[in-house]
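Aim 2, interim progress. The first record below pairs a target sequence with its structure tokens.
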Amino acid sequence: MVPPVAAAADNNTSLMGMLRPRRGNIDHIRALYVQTPATLSGNAIGMVLMGSIFWPLAEPWRVMGWVGVGLVLWLLRLAHYLRFLRHKEAGAEPLRAWRRSWKVLVLAQGAMWGVAVWLFWGLGTPYHTVSLILIVYSYCLGSVQLLATQPRMFLVFISLVLTPTILRIASDTSQPWHNQLAVILTLLFCITVLMARTYGSALGQAIILKRRTDELAGKLRVEMAAAEQARSVADEARRTAEAANRAKTQFFAAASHDLRQPLHAMGLFAEALRQRSHDPEVASLVNSINESVDALEGLFGELLDITRIDTGGVDVSPAPVRLRDVFARLRLHFEPVAFEKGLMLSFHGEQHVAHTDPVLLERVLRNLVSNAIRYSDDGGVLVSCRVRSGHADVGAASGAGGAGGTHLLVQVWDSGIGIGPVNLPRIFDEFFQAQSNRPLEAHHRKGLGLGLAIVKRLAALMEAPISVRSRVGHGTVFSLQVPVGRVPRTAEAAAPCSVKAALGLTLEGRLIVVVEDEAAVRDGLVVVLQAWGANVVAFDTVAAVQAWLAGLFLPGAAPGAAPGAAPAAPDLLLVDYRLPQGRTGIDALVHIRRHFAGRKLPAIVITGSSLGGHEDEAVTHDYHLLIKPVLPNKLRAMIAFKLNVR
């Protein structure tokens, strides 16, 4: 037997009391009508069974009278139900009135089944009697679901059905054990009532849980709506922040490019001023201008790099990297600078292959090599790579912890001024500039202190631990750990690096072609190159270059040229990367070199963009790259390197 469900209500009233339909509970009344089709079907089946079983045994008037009364009640309930279907939106008053008549019809049907026992008891065999009891009791069980939430109504209904049945069995003295059967049926009566109460309690508990679930669901919907609104606000804020970050990066990139142009022209005109004046004070002012231009160029680059890293604009794509290729590009970029200072720039271990992001690795090494050359006045700079097993040595300052296993140790050594032990722990901090006991030379630029901070962040993005060791007056070594790659090594040999002494540039008799669309920059280049003794032919577009190659006369482009005159082969090509009409300096190089096929024409490409991506083109088209603003001493060093002059 299932135990009764405990009562549960906020006001401590009984659950059945809560479930008892209150007057005016319209939804409950509608629910009664919803169950009417199932009840009518059960009644129809019961009447058909009773009629078919007892028609051969009882007088026709009994069977027909009982079935007729049952059919009338059945049709009245059906009419009741159809009226409800026609008026589903009926108000409270009609529904309450219909409920009263519904109760009368249900109780009348219950009494009809109780009368059936008196009409058909004792007819036929004992099996007929058992069938009669089972049909009547099944009808009582079927009413549990319909009337369980109405305990009083159910008690009256089951009493109308089972009480006549129990009395008829107890009064039948012709059958043995009739009293015992009456007692058994009485127990079934009590069990059925208890079952109805239990079912009603369980149903009520389910209703309470459903109501609470609906309340919780409502609260959850409200909270989800609030969360969705908050998420929308957060997403909008994130999109706004990302847009702001992109705008900031684009602003720095645009500002860097646009401001490099006048700075570049400023440096060229300052050099032209020095060439035309031998006043020491003028020369000192020109040096100060050049130092300021150089400092601004470095600041633009650092701000742009740190901004792109902070805004997530740097993607990490590890891949096998041949260090030979990386070292070749570093040599291509820094050899002229080392050449000018009389430093030896060496590369060892270029046969190794690393597995890391090639772009980020090269940017880290570029920063480290640039610093090494800047702070070294004699000796040289060494970039090396070797295989190390276990934990790498960790220097006085580190951007990440060591890593176990086999890896490559990429190092940048210099013989520069070194870093003091007090400054070494903070060398990778942002905006930190080491204080040296030794006075810094003019070319030891004092910037924002972001260069090594950028190195540390890029190394962290690559998950490559970086460390530093240094001795004041002896030099510094930066060490970077990267995983070993698995690409087969090639036997390609690196081009030997050249070491030159400090130069004194003369370009007497040299013909240099300049392609630059910015008039101020073009004029500045012409003035400086002519001051160094060169003959200069200047153009502003690729079309102008093609016209010159075709022998056409262009006023101001080729002094002394006449229509139909064949152009002389230049000694050096100096072109801007971005030119009008969507053309680039590469187009100008291709046209000129094709025209003078068979001659090796050295080239320098100058660009105002610091976003990178030109290194592969530089290798493919055989040119060196300079980033605006280009100070005259850097330009002079690069030209001397390309022309191999002292």
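The second target in this work package is listed in the same format:
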Amino acid sequence: MKFFFIAFLTLFAGHVALAQPTATTTAPLTARLGQVGLTVALAPGGRLTYAVQYGPKTVVNPSRLGLELAGSPGFEGALELVGSELTSTDETWQPVWGEVKTIRNHYQQLTVHLRQPQAPGRLLDVVFRVFADGVGFRYEFPRQPNLAYFVVQRELTEFNLPANHKAFWIPGDYDSNEYAYTTSRLSEVDTTPIEPIQQKAAPTRVQTPLMLKSDDGLYINIHEAALVNYPAMMLSVDTKTFGLTAQLVPSATGAAAYLQAPEHTPWRTLVVSDKAPDVLASKLILNLNEPSKIKDTSWIKPQKFVGVWWEMHVNRATWNYADTSNIKLAGTDWNALKPNGRHGANTANVKRYIDFAAKHSLASVLVEGWNVGWEDWANNWKEEVFDFVTPYPDFDVAGLQSYAAGKGVQLMMHHETSASVTNYERRQDEAYRFMKAHNYDALKTGYVGRIIPRGEHHDGQWMVNHYVRTAQQTAAHHIMVDMHESVRPTGLHRTYPNWMANEAARGNEFNAWSTGNPPEHETILPFTRLMGGPMDYTPGIFQIKLEPWNPAANKGRQVHTTLAKQLALYVTMYSPLQMAADLPEAYEQHPDAFQFIKDVPVDWDDTRIVAAEPGDYLTIARQAKGRDEWYVGSISDENARRQDVRLDFLTPGRRYEATIYADGKDASWDQNPMAYQIRKLKVTSKSTLKLQLAAGGGAAVSIKPLK
């Protein structure tokens, strides 16, 4: 194949050689940092392509780049190269909170300037950043006279893979990420028999982050970074050629994105290594996001919390207050209604949680179901359900504010929107002022149901902009936010560090009322969903068998885990907001195991991925923020296994005490999930822990220096 260029760049391991542009130069543009190599070329017909290698191995074969615009020639082909630049960046920065104290941002940036001759003067830049662990690239639209307002109809980005890789995937649903993962070859991807997809879906459309493993030993993760003012990217899978093509979530009109130059798309990201732990350690996605837009971040505080939440999932209480068997909900006088007797968010019950949090030094108490509207909220596609400021008659806002303050505990607000987002946006400012007036500094949002405006999707441009606006507005009110049923994250917690967590995946709650999450689920999520940011997974379930909470409703139901694995998740499933999700009485029955939840931090100075294999096992060690304490979490899939953990990350010459919370000798996730044992060892940096994990089990370890 013949390529035509006017410039030649080459970069190897940080050393730059730049050929002077000439009219006869025909070589492609190439860049390399460490093992990662990038090649950019114009194919015949003016189509822009790129390819990626890792050492001698092919990551992505030559793949098409471009965009199709509505109503006029776009950037599909017939492009001309008008110039390029190469720059180098090597810097460090410190996140407000995170898995490590300091992050290195080292990359080579290649900017390719293109012109579409069919639309004279219409320009496009494609910017590539090559890191030692992958590549990011995006489309940029400079300010120009012939491209002001425009509509992206389709993105033509391809990832042409060289072989039939193993894939860890969920269906490409425009409205939900709440699926268990399927592990299969790319040739076997077919979403139709999995579960009903809310949006009519192509049978081979999958979501990102997509995790892949090649037979020649490469681990490849495909996702995006800095998703702002643009729809989320799904991937259409060609099961015969193993090619992937970007598919953008459509708007209500069918178009993908409405833009105005100057503008740019999110970064498309490829993280690649021959070692699985390196994928989890990558900071490529974070580095592609902008620095914090919040100048004073002193009010942003990672924390652990409990809440009135799990008792509703296990059928012990309800979100709604009233007996709805014989009432008309329109124009309801809530004070005149008969209570159903099972409302969870009542003043006395919330005080019980506040007392528990205060006793065990947990920062906050989340309360769901406190405000009127829950009797008529789900799946009705109603414009107005909640007003976010009117409590039920049995929820004393002012009294609980005073009670919590007296105990040194914060209350966490919950805003379920029932997906009526236009209603929420009208009421946000009033709702946030109400929160601050009653001393609420953190918020959990929810978007269950079909989106209003009708025809928009949870992962489309309209909703993406809503999530960002919500992060901005809560920041303006000094409120931390945790979003549920949202688009999956793309590293924007660097830019808006008050955006602490998302759900955006199949969380622990599914174990309460569905077929549940298979034991391998938590070994896959760090390689997929968590690549873009923290997840509010709600770990810490101690009453694994759920029948005691409601024997009639929960017969045979259980969480697919051991108790020790639930402890390990506080280390392996990173979030600066971690919930002790079970009921207080569950923890009171196991105070020795609950000690780990009390001890484990939510903010870290260092993280070591000790061992990892997606779908099989994961072991992570983390150092507490500002302290010489380490915590280890190790989890397994449905298989029992041993994990050896060398403690060479400890300070040499110093002695420590390791407290090991392990599966009991006869434990297993299905037969004996609540059996655990606790033992203490004296260790040093030369020690090795030998952790025995039960089937579906895990181990958690706290390591503290001896005085």
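The chain is about 15% helix and 35% strand. This observation will shape the mutagenesis plan for the next reporting period.
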